[in-house]
């Protein structure tokens, strides 16, 4: 199939960007979205143009490195799918596709479609861990964890840190990402001693980094490739406010 | 042949390997190792390249011990290292099930699984430490699967006869890596780790023969910079991407260890490559990488191809009598659960016979119809739902309706830099951990053992052994002006400039694809003398063309993904040649290395313990590599021919 | 704010690192627990939720009080008078009303302040807009919270001038409450002037009630649907209850 792409091009963080139109031909429906961009890039190089920079690594939906806003939706319209897993069979011949980078002040554009998401690392560094030195752990069976808690903690722990939640949120809020980690650790017995401190430090760090606040709009969970539920945000709020969370 | 492709040097020995009763060796070594005074640890700096399971766990633990750590990764966050993609699980000899597992059995299985090409002492230590890994990870909050009683669940994996594999749904690597990443985050916050994401190591700095630092390129600004330390740890992962198509992440590369190899570190067993049988087949020329489908699918799926070649009917239209369930036919006792290398080769054989299915005839069916009929659709969905979904996303076909198509793909590289029992390479002060070293797995790795090894190295082994070396430090302070430092940095700048200056007519990817094709055809699942000789010639010619005709767009002082690629490919060329030479010299079949000339009458791999019971450690010379042999002895596990019939 | 290249800049030098600075910040936060909490977006949202809930409480009582118009002129006027005498002699005349007015003003001020601060924070977080932005699942109600709130506030000002003070009322300041009310709603355009903000209020609460539960950590995957259903039901009942009086007047049930 043949497609028209409008791609955000920006030489570096300080220069002004703009949308540039490209036409790509003979795209196979079996290609992934990124493979389609590979094809375009190969052509751009041979034409002496600068290929489009975009982040990616695992190309199987787990590393969280890829992420493009495709026709206005982070990771594209297919639900629970990362950009690298999105395949061209979901597009039609003749379609126009607009491709933009994540937009948020704490995610400055580095080049073209590449943004700097290190703010997420700062949030985890603020407290997204259990302080346990190596080698001092009790036997793994010393503390049983009810299956239900373990499973819910796991659901939250599957966050890949891609940042689509921020990109989608009209407030540019990192709440879903932050809440996913707070929920993961807060539900396990191992995470209890630091639970209150963790929530406070992580939430405040997110604010300081310039993310917006959550007004419970729910776009984040809709685009989240791992379907992290809004319940995690409720749990984060409860932990932050020092209230006992209810529900799962 | 020796003179044609390589030379033979003096044999080497693992000087740090303790002797005595195997179960006490690790204790003995730890006791014999020198300790570093706590006050001195603050004055010592360690560089850790890589933030995967191995590098992440090592950096966190070293920082905790008090060393100053500098960490590097090429991704935008340490959390994205390729370990994140591991699906199946991690082995540990916990024997929580009481099904007869023990440290000794894990040791035994690993030595046997490695086809008797690994060191007994190392493997025993790995099995011992495995137990502590699970404790450590659980304490960090890694959400392993649990049973209703709240205790950890385990499963049997990769044909093991005991249930020793701990898992976190199909995302074990992710959860373990996040555990290590969080431990790192804690140390970054505490100011003990200086993290450098989007920074690639491009050379090793040697001063007076010791590893004293790395030269890096900042992938955003292009700045080439020196970083100094008292010891350097490489944890840069595997090099399966030399095949272009593999299950590895796109950025996986050999650069870090290859640069160290060029500076004198021996490279061991480069040819041992694990080909995983259950991957989604290539769908066209555009294919950029291959996706693994967890091995656990073979527990319930049945593998088959049409009985006769050229059968293009839809799978549902092929009657039972005209199907060949070839694994069940050839290996009646293990059936669909034969080890990876056997399943992979069998698939290749039926496809070579022209009986493969799907585009290009490179695929076999993995059929769940029986399982669905037997267990019900819901039960199958509960077990494999996420994998089916992943398959559906990629292929657009629903495995509930039509059989999956699978084909083998390059997955893991057992080879890597040679290290001694302390995980130190032949360059003093250079330590290598995780998939980047060659240790522990011999000629073939068992499922769920790579995660175990990475974490064993990083959390428990290296932090103990590196002290023995560092006790002699701190070493003299260095600066950019030091002649050996300046030379290293200059070499990096020159190389970057050279890549950009070629300005030819072919893209880096086109070279990489072609190189991968050569490797897959001649150094892939089956290797022959003639094929390997041909491959060496082809690789040399292609490499020469690369340096004459590659077109790297852009400049060096910016984010330039083509430049990154080109640099990695340049190193892959050199590695590829060494892999072929290693494969050529090893005229036996063992583990992940199958030589067409060395098989039993019924087509199974035939080892030659008499001649090849050694680690092949190669020295870089710039011309023909020099082979150093480290002989292997087996006191506890008697080498035997594997049989899965 | 993060500047360019932060991803590659060394996170910190080991001795004067940002990591250290951050640790200090989190351990050395000054001020009482409540004020520290309020600094974060989550704290602001909690304030909005609590103030919102209090305002909802007022509206429920107000709505029920309004239904007295159906009991006749005297009953309604008595009720209005009672509001001014309740609590006497413990409270001065209209004491209760003034307490309520001050209370509501403070509550509204807090609610609006937090709303404005959150809006500013959100605008700063997304300085560059998308060229194309598609909504995936956000509701109309959730998107109209800010403008809806402003319109509701404007309405309240008008409403007080109309029915409490009387200057904006067709019947004027001298008329009794019942007369003013009837004077209003005999005019269809004033019914519309009330109905529109009321519908917006309904939307505000449809999202607000669920949102408040979420903000206070009362959400949960299993509860999301029930709470949302309740919120919708509640908003419908409240708006309908308020609309009874104007519609009653318009169709002539109340004269
Ligand atoms: C799809 C898949 C599934 C797997 N499933 C399993 C499983 O179920 N069980 C199991 O035991 N094993 C599994 N494995 C194998 C296992 O995941 C890997 O062997 C293991 O994770 C390697 O860890 P590592 O820490 O050595 O390296 P990696 O995780 O690969 O990390 C390498 C690190 O080095 C950095 N790096 C690399 N080069 C440079 C450079 N030049 N400069 C700076 N930094 C650099 C990278 O940024 C990265 O941080 C699987 C592998 C794959 C591909
Ligand atoms: C000037 C007037 C008002 C403004 C500007 C305003 C604005 C807002 C905003 C921006 C929100 C947050 C949006 C969200 O949660 O998605 C909100 C929430 C809310 N508002 Fe209002 N509002 C106003 C008046 C009112 C009134 C009169 C009521 C009560 C009846 C009310 C009840 C609520 C409730 C219950 C919430 C939910 C709180 C939460 O999400 O935590 N608001 N309002
Ligand atoms: C049709 C709907 C409504 C009717 C008929 C109505 C009627 C009245 C009347 C008659 C009064 C004057 C009472 C008195 O002075 O004794 C009043 C006061 C008031 N109403 Fe309403 N009202 C309606 C809707 C609303 C709404 C939607 C709000 C808020 C969002 C609101 C907020 C107030 C306030 C704040 C006062 C002032 C109370 C005081 O004097 O302190 N009303 N209303
Ligand atoms: S919560 Fe979802 S969208 Fe946000 S970073 Fe995690 S995986 Fe991505
Ligand atoms: S979209 Fe934004 S407002 Fe909250 S619920 Fe999600 S973070
Ligand atoms: S590239 Fe790893 S998630 Fe898309």
Distance between the termini of chain B: 36 Å
How many strands appear in the DSSP assignment of chain C?
0
What's the CATH first level of the domain at 276-411 in chain B? Answer: Alpha Beta
Our Rg estimate of chain C from Cα atoms comes to 24 Å
CATH superfamily of the domain at 276-411 in chain B: Succinate dehydrogenase/fumarate reductase flavoprotein, catalytic domain
- How much of the sequence lies in strands of chain C comes to under 5%
Instruction: Provide the β-strand percentage band of chain B.
Output: 5-15%
Gyration radius of chain B (Cα, Å) is 24 Å
Average pLDDT across residues of chain C?
86
CATH topology of the domain at 276-411 in chain B: Flavocytochrome C3, Chain A, domain 1
Oligomeric state of the chains? heterotrimer
The number of helical segments of chain B is 18
Helix content of chain B: 25-40%
| Spatial shape of chain B | globular
Average pLDDT score of chain B: 95
Broad structural category of chain B: alpha+beta
* Biggest interface pair, counts: A-B, 79 and 80 residues
Q: Main β-sheet of chain B, in a few words?
A: 5 strands, mixed
Largest sheet of chain C: none
The number of helical segments of chain C is 10
Primary descriptors:
heterotrimer, A: alpha+beta, Ubiquitin-like (UB roll), Fumarate Reductase Iron-sulfur Protein, Chain B, domain 2, 2 domains, two-stranded antiparallel ribbon, B: 645 residues, alpha+beta, Flavocytochrome C3, Chain A, domain 1, Methane Monooxygenase Hydroxylase, Chain G, domain 1, five-stranded mixed sheet, five-stranded parallel sheet, 15% strand, binds protoporphyrin IX containing FE, binds iron/sulfur cluster, binds FE3-S4 cluster
What do you see in this structure?
The complex is a heterotrimer of chains A (248), B (645) and C (255). Chain A is an alpha+beta fold. Chain A is 32% helix and 11% strand. Chain A has two domains: 3-111, Beta-grasp domain (Ubiquitin-like (UB roll), Roll); 117-132 and 142-240, Alpha-helical ferredoxin (Fumarate Reductase Iron-sulfur Protein, Chain B, domain 2, Orthogonal Bundle). Chain A has eight helices and seven strands; from the N terminus they run E-E-H-E-E-E-E-E-H-H-H-H-H-H-H. Chain A has a five-stranded mixed sheet. Chain A has a two-stranded antiparallel sheet with strand order 6-7. In chain A, a hairpin with a 2-residue loop joins strand 6 (109-111) and strand 7 (114-115). The termini of chain A are far apart. Chain B is an alpha+beta fold. Among the domains of chain B are: 276-411, Succinate dehydrogenase/fumarate reductase flavoprotein, catalytic domain (Flavocytochrome C3, Chain A, domain 1), CATH 3.90.700.10; 483-613, Methane Monooxygenase Hydroxylase, Chain G, domain 1, CATH 1.20.58.100. Chain B contains 18 helices and 21 strands. In chain B, the strands form five sheets. Chain B has a five-stranded mixed sheet. A five-stranded parallel sheet of chain B has the order 7-3-2-11-19. In chain B, helix 4 (53-65) links the parallel strand 2 (45-49) and strand 3 (68-72). The longest helix of chain B has 25 residues, at 561-585. The model of chain B has no long low-confidence stretch (mean pLDDT 95). Chain C is mainly α and 255 residues long. In chain C, 71% of the residues lie in helices and 0% in strands. Chain C has ten helices and no strands. Chain C has helices at 18-27, 33-39, 41-66, 73-85, 95-125, 140-143, 145-165, 177-185, 188-215, 221-251. The longest helix of chain C has 31 residues, at 95-125. The N and C termini of chain C lie far apart (62 Å). Mean pLDDT of chain C is 86; it is low at 1-30. Chains in contact: A-B, A-C, B-C. Chains A and B meet through helix 1, helix 2 and helix 3 of A and helix 4, helix 6, helix 7, helix 12 and helix 13 of B. The structure holds flavin-adenine dinucleotide, protoporphyrin IX containing FE (2 copies), iron/sulfur cluster, FE3-S4 cluster (F3S) and FE2/S2 (inorganic) cluster. The site of FE2/S2 (inorganic) cluster has 13 residues of chain A, from loops.
